Amino acid sequence: MMPDLGQYATEVLTAYAGSLALLIAVVVMSVWKARRVQRRLMSVEQRREKSS
């Protein structure tokens, strides 16, 4: 399944690993920020309901 990369195998696999790590980091940070924003929005909505 994996093509023969020859002398560049280390560089190519390192690039793949780096790209995968960056992609995972972006997804994790996006989920983390979305949850944080959701908590803040719920807090604001609860304060608004109390004042009404």
Automatic annotation (TrEMBL):
Location(s), subcellular: Cell inner membrane
Topology of the protein relative to the lipid bilayer: Single-pass membrane protein
Bilayer-crossing regions: 12-32
UniProt signal peptide: none
Residue ranges the record marks as coiled coil: none
Superkingdom of origin organism: Bacteria
UniProt keyword annotations, A-Z: Cell inner membrane, Cell membrane, Cytochrome c-type biogenesis, Membrane, Transmembrane, Transmembrane helix, Transport
One Gene Ontology cellular component annotation held by this UniProt entry: plasma membrane
Keyword Magnesium: no
Pfam families: CcmD
Stored InterPro entries: Haem_export_protD_CcmD
GO process annotations (BP): cytochrome complex assembly; heme transport
Purpose of the protein: Required for the export of heme to the periplasm for the biogenesis of c-type cytochromes.
Sequence similarity: Belongs to the CcmD/CycX/HelD family.
Protein name: Heme exporter protein D
The organism of origin for this protein: Rhodophyticola porphyridii
Lineage, broadest ranks: Bacteria, Pseudomonadati, Pseudomonadota, Alphaproteobacteria, Rhodobacterales
Gene name for this UniProt entry: ccmD
